[in-house]
Amino acid sequence: LSAGATAPPVAVDLRTDLAGIELEHPVLNGSGTFDAIAALRVFGDELRERFPFSAFVSKTITVAPRGGNPPPRLWETPAGLINSIGLPNKGLAGFLDDDLPVLATLPVPLVVSVAGFSRDEFGTLVDAVAERPEVTALELNVSCPNVKSGCVIGSEVGEMAALMRQVRPLTSKPLIVKLTPNVAEVAPVARTAQEEGADALSLINTLRATAVDPASGRPWLGAGSGGLSGPAVRAVALAQTAAVAAATTVPLVGMGGIQTGRDALDLVTLGASCVAVGTESFRDPAAATRVRAELADELQRESRHSLRAAIAASGRLPAPA
Amino acid sequence: MTAPFGRRLCPVAGSESIGPYVMLAVEDSARFARPEPGQFYMLTAARGWGGDGGRPHLGRAFSVCRVRDGRLEFLLEAIGPGTERLAELDADEGIWVVGPLGIGFTPPDSSRAVLVGGGIGIAPLVIWAETLSGPQVSLLGFRNGSYAAAAALLPGDVRVATDDGTGAGVHHGPVTELLAQELTPTDTVYACGPPAMLEAVRGICVERGVEAQLALEAGMACGFGACFGCVVQTRTGWRRLCVDGPIVRAAELAEDWH
Fold it and tell me: Are A139 and A102 in contact (CB under 8 A)?
């Protein structure tokens, strides 16, 4: 019996970059799957010393504060989880005043996830967040399936183009578009986001899902439906990552049910420059550290001396010199 | 006390049946991380977690019931795929542990502590009763006399109620009837149990202006504030039970919290 995950061996160079952001290794957190501020309260300074992610992606913020959806908010499925959280957050002003100063103390670059219920709201968020020096990049959440009025922009090419035309001129900082998987074809929206200036794409978000209360026969979740994550969606994540990799050239952050280094390498093999751990962090707050170590082991086993070599082998990066 | 970061693999020290319940003892590999009464842990069996049906997938949250010789003890009732797997663990099998988590009970500033427990909800009251130094009384409710065997876990002055009246010397009826008789204005109440019981406790204590701390439960995916799943409605909005609970003062709960 041993203690928890340890740091990876140094033999393999895990460095990567995401839209010009140099990262020590490729493992990020999925937005909304790790509250670093709460985790600092729970785990103390050990979290800072052993921070599991190479960049931290904030929980999505909106212009106005939101309480979130009524409970129940969770339902466990075979090898997965349906959540219906509803983007609870302090709103833009609360985030900038209360949360940003704390997130700025994390030992890694900060990516702030934003969601608007209109293009103007996205503009307000991008404008206010991007001008803060603590923020390295922004992720545009156009895909959360939980909020009734959202979910439109990321599923339509025209909406996506119009959003990017509105927000792209507002900042020179990297804009990462988090794609929604709840579409018939993911490639057209991905291609449009790139054409209109997205610096990177991340995928997949949760798949729309519902659970039935066995006692009442009615929907279990307070909001009626939610989004499925965990190993149950991994195969979908692989397919969508492959489709987007074939349709675009910008860096990809691949995620969806990653539990092991092998899972992470599968996404890299299909073209992802970075990967994100989400639901697995719920099972083990330090899961991303283990995934990183296992990824290094997998690369070594394949006789690759660097992650960049593996990314290049996917055909989406020039081979390293 | 902050928790060690990440989950840790610990050996099961053993388990013991207490009526229909199981007391699972875990040899904590991080013995320095002593829990406070009312705190909880996320537990995952190292093997056989997610069998044929693909569940359980996530860890399960349990209040610490006792600490004996550095071993953490958890009171379980096998009612679903997670608790069934945990209840069948044998000595020396592995268990993943995250914790201690959450905010525990606050000691009373009044003269007497009244502990009110319902069923498996007696778990955090055991370690609390063992920790309290002043006067205390425990009022415990169970379905029947078989479950009421667990009342022996509580030290000191213990009174028992059962729903069906079975069991030696018990009160026939809800445990909150005992509370209504017993409660005095200077008491501090600590309660854990099913939502209906806690709502009755809240009603009695708010009406009489008595301080009450309720140990609440909600479906929880992570236990450390990440998933935002385990919320309860308070007078100031939704509160995460994992990081801003599981102990919540009765006066802070919204009227329609349950």
Answer: no
Q: What pLDDT, on the 0 to 100 scale, is given for residue B32?
A: 84
pLDDT of residue A146: 40
Q: Is A274 a catalytic residue?
A: no
137-176 in B: which are within 8 Å (CB) of A? none
Distance from CA of A205 to the nearest CA of B (A): 15
Provide the 8-state DSSP code for A33.
S
Q: Which of A186, A178, A229, A180 is nearest to A202 (CA)?
A: A178
Peptide bond into A214 cis (omega under 30): no
CA distances from A216 to A42, A212, A213 (A): 36, 8, 6
Catalytic residue, from A106, A144, A209, A250: name it: A144
Q: Tell me if chain A has a CB within 8 Å of the CB of B33.
A: no
This model's pTM is above 0.90: yes
Residues 43-82 of B with CB under 8 A from A: 44, 50, 53-59
> Is the predicted pLDDT of residue B46 greater than 60, yes or no?
yes
Spatial contact of B224 and A285, defined as CB atoms under 8 Å apart? yes
pLDDT of amino acid A18: 94
The model's pLDDT over A162-203, given as tens digits with 9 standing for 90+, comes to: 999 999 999 999 999 999 999 999 999 999 999 999 999 999
Q: Is the ipTM of this complex over 0.85?
A: yes
Give the chain A residue nearest B100 (alpha carbons): A42
Select the residue from B8, B39, B41, B222 to test the A interface by mutation, using most A Cβ atoms within 10 A.
B222
User: What Cα–Cα distance (Å) separates residue B7 from each residue in A29, B48, B81?
Assistant: 17, 17, 20
- CA dist A208 and A151 (Å) reads 11
In this structure, the strands spanning B71-76 and B21-27 are antiparallel
